[in-house]
Amino acid sequence: MIISLLTSVLSITLRAGTSLVYATVGEIYTERSGILNLGLEGMMLMGAVTAFATAYYSGSVGLGLVVALAVGAMLAAIHAFLTVTMRANQVVSGLSITLFGSGLASFLGQRLGPVSNNYYLVGMVGPKFTPIRIPWLSKIPVLGALFSQDILTYLVYLLVPLAWFYLYKTREGLNLRAVGENPQTADAMGINVTRTRYLYTVFGGMLAGLGGAHLSLAYTPGWTENLTGGRGWIVIALVIFAMWNPARAILGAILFGGINAVQFRIQAAGTTIPAEFLNMLPYLLTILVLIVMTWWEALSKRIGAPAALGNAYMREDK
Amino acid sequence: MNEVKTPILEMQGITKRFPGVLANDHVDLELYPGEVLALLGENGAGKSTLMNVLVGLYRPDEGEIYVRGKRAEIHSPKDAAALGIGMVHQNFMLVKTMTVAENIILGMSDLPFVPSMETVGKRITEISKRYNLQVDPNAYIWQLSVGEQQRVEILKLVYRGAEILILDEPTAVLTPQESHELAGVLKVMTDEGKSAIFITHKMEEVMEFSDWVRVLQHGKLVAVRRTQDTSPQELARLMVGREVLFRLDKAACTPTETILELQDVHADDDKGLPALRGLSLTIHGGEIVGIAGVAGNGQRQLSEVVTGLRRVTGGQVFIRRKDMTNQNPLSVIKAGVSHIPADRIGMGAVGNMAVSENLVMKGYREAPIVINGVLRPNRILEFAHKMIEMFRIATPTPQTRIKFLSGGNIQKAILAREIDACDGLLVAVYPSRGLDVGATESVRRMLLAQREEGMGVLLISEDLEELLTIADRIAVMFEGQIMGVVASDDADVETLGLMMAGVKREDLAVEIEDAVSTSTASS
């Protein structure tokens, strides 16, 4: 009994954490280049609605993923153009993209559906990613939950170590970190700051789109208004929680995914605690995490945000 | 030595315009292999701009560059590096949170995708031995002293195979002894056939380091000399365009009552690390006490402790015998302390506000500027006119936003405000930094005038010549402590240099006897 409970909590934790890991790793890379992308929420919602709509009509979840990646990339490219080329305020640009993305996603959700459903996507059932049980491994008590996930969750197992290795061990990772810390220096060392910032902002947007797609194609298949439930904002906090290190992103995602999972179980068990209170918990925790991290950062000083985060760069600025 | 050499580098007719400024006006430059060329000029003469053009950070509006006789198109630092040109910038181009080795290989394109830091470290150690540039490849930049950071910068260029090294005011952050070491490093490099361009505004360094000197003035090339055929006096005249007085007239010092007294003061820096470690100092009315030291040894924290901007963690601060330890800035201001901060635009003035508004930023609390809580615009203007005239601030109108003035005039406006409000102690931090000779001279005159008025002046400066010229006593700071206080008439550059490197004054007594008289600054 207890084993099956633990297995199910771990399983839901991983499923709930998957979209968070994708978006967090993406945002870590974006912020490492010195660009703050507050447009994540909008990018995730757009990724979710377009992925579901594509999969619904084409019957192919793979095609849905491709579209989500492309949509995330396009929105991020707008952000990169505004903040890198036009040197607009990164906070304002990011917020506009979130507002634009959420609005458009909601609009598309009411227009892309079939005639029979009054053009609404809400309530439609489409293809989805199903868990793939790995023989033998999935039979292990509790830890078997790690091996009965959908393909996107399996990819997370690969993505995180790769993202860590790339950032800390490769030439390109070194250059990326330098751009976010000190673009003047990076430029003087022959690194193309503009190209780097475009590249990783778009990369971050693609992963945000992918995270959104996981929600509408695997975690809670289908489309509903505000499907992400503020996950884009939690990711912003998770990046800080991870201290801009992709390896730590998994910890944060597990923590927040875990709260989701426990909350499911508590609700299922029937409790007097109102659902609204449980729904609020992840966000309350976000605030707590931010307070603790800021405090901790003040103590350790050295580990902090990339020094040039939020600053536009222009070579001939005096 | 009489063979005709071909230049390794030629710049012809380089012109660079910034909005409203002609930074370089058809400047020519030639550099020969195995030689050091000094580029001499005042601040704003266009030296750094010219070099930024050479390394591809700026695009010239006109002009051509030839490297090894071939026309070179340099669009980015990468192009420059490919031609063997590298620059040590005035503010170091280092990523503080990365290691020495990581900084050195940063941005290199002929690097494996997954570089082996071990191999890189070995090569760094090899090069640092050859040129006597000791540094630990695995240390983080933030752990290094400024002198060590400069070594990393030079290593970086050599590691990348630079044949032409550009050094932008490299000695500004070094003690006199460290400068001599740098000269030694350059010697090894030029003996190997590398060449260097050395930017400076100090005549003595031209004489010590270079084979050739080119003098820039207001963006124009005004003279080319062989170093052995010229003299510091001639260079000074060429640089400024007129004879320069090396000494200001100064009345004898007549110290009066004690104005400022610091007793065993301790304070932390922004990172919470100790910056002042048991510092004691006394300043009397009618004297200028200079603080010498390599930047970053607690000078800024000292000025902040005195002006109430930083809390002390131990010890006491007395102003006119009144305990002012950890009082807020307003009480300190009311006690008669004025402050000329190092960061003119950040801390000394509000760039987007009018000159007149900046001028009343201290007097606005009191009548006649404010009556019943309402500002009186006419009186502000009246006051501003008076100040502008008295301190000869060149501004189109009192309503002009102060950020549009030149550095020298912004500084004059800050001085005007602070001197007007000063009643006892004037704290001046790097007051002439970045100013041209004319503005520097008037700033120094104003400080001397305050001394005549009976005020105490705490002058923090990185320019030993300035301290020797106008201070009455010089205290040398090293790692948050005072290494010793000397009367400026008895001080020489050599002694001050040793103290700046952390030698206590009492340990010096014997060495002074046979110290070489290199103190050209007081000549």
Describe this structure in words.
The complex is a heterodimer of chains A (318) and B (523). By secondary structure, chain A is an all-alpha fold. Chain A has one domain: ABC transporter involved in vitamin B12 uptake, BtuC. Chain A has 11 helices and 2 strands, in the order ααααββααααααα. In chain A, strands 1-2 form a two-stranded antiparallel ribbon. The model of chain A has no long low-confidence stretch (mean pLDDT 90). Chain B has 523 residues and is α/β, with parallel strands linked by helices. Chain B is built from 18 helices and 22 strands. Chain B has helices at residues 47-54, 77-82, 100-105, 117-130, 146-159, 176-191, 203-209, 232-240, 299-306, 329-334, 344-348, 355-359, 377-390, 407-421, 437-452, 464-470, 493-500, 505-513, and strands at residues 9-18, 21-31, 36-40, 62-67, 70-72, 85-88, 164-168, 195-200, 212-217, 220-226, 258-268, 274-284, 288-292, 314-319, 322-323, 337-340, 370-371, 374-375, 425-429, 456-460, 473-478, 481-487. In chain B, strands 6-7-8-3-9-10 form a 6-stranded mixed β-sheet, with helices on both faces. A 6-stranded mixed β-sheet of chain B has the order 16-19-20-13-21-22, with helices on both faces. In chain B, strand 14 (314-319) and strand 15 (322-323) form a beta hairpin. The interface between A and B is medium-sized, with 25 and 30 residues.
Rg of chain B from C-alpha positions? Answer: 25 Å
| Top-tier CATH class of chain A | Mainly Alpha
Per CATH, which architecture of the largest domain in chain B?
A: 3-Layer(aba) Sandwich
Poorly predicted runs of chain A are none
List keywords for this structure.
heterodimer, A: 318 residues, mainly alpha, ABC transporter involved in vitamin B12 uptake, BtuC, two-stranded antiparallel sheet, 11 helices, 2 strands, 69% helix, B: 523 residues, alpha/beta, Rossmann fold, 4 domains, 6-stranded mixed beta sheet, 18 helices, 22 strands, 25% strand, disordered C terminus
